[in-house]
Amino acid sequence: AVARHVGNSFHLSHFELTLVVLAANVVSFGLFWVLKFLLYNRLFHVHPVEELDELVEAA
Hints:
Layout: H1 2-9, H2 14-43, H3 49-58
């Protein structure tokens, strides 16, 4: 919606408006992919084997 509003306010042609909407879609997909990766990496972080060995030996 924002990309379409920007396109209409700058009086872009249909092709240019399509490119603006496409670019906004790609940028939003990339942003959400990176955020998802960071969130899942933090939630499902697996400790390296060396750290687990130290924890087992300490117990």
